[in-house]
Model the fold of this input.
Amino acid sequence: MRRRKPGSMPDPRTQSAGFEQARQSRKTALVEDYVELIADLLHDGQEARQVDIAQRLGVSQPTVAKMLCRLEADGLVTRRPYRGIFLTEAGEKMAADSQARHHIVETFLRALGISEKNASIDAEGMEHYVGEETLAAFERAIRAGVAEFMGTRAAPESHK
Done:
């Protein structure tokens, strides 16, 4: 836990906004993970099946079944008997937005010299909590050559 000098706390509105953003991000992170994974499976030419989702997320099939009911009720997926899971237009948009955030965060971390494996793992969590202003700053840093500044190998192109 970081320590602050007495009297150096942020003003209540700023602090409250930070906590609110974190609460909202926690609410959507799991949904975004499922939708993004379903999109990845479909775009990889595979069917998005409950068993595959459970295996890749490291959860039980009943856990996946419960979440799929929620995603279907929220209008993000459709399920067809014996055909797997498909994203709706809203699900596709959510997946694309999440994938774009993930790519920016991962590219930025790689530009800082973080290994490919750790950057991918860390980006998976960070992508849900980073705000638009921070994402834009990450992209500006990538375009400005932060990888070269840090002395790391060149970062891949940013996604936008």
In short: Residues 20-88 form a domain with the Arc Repressor Mutant, subunit A fold (CATH 1.10.10.10). The two ends are 35 Å apart (CA to CA).
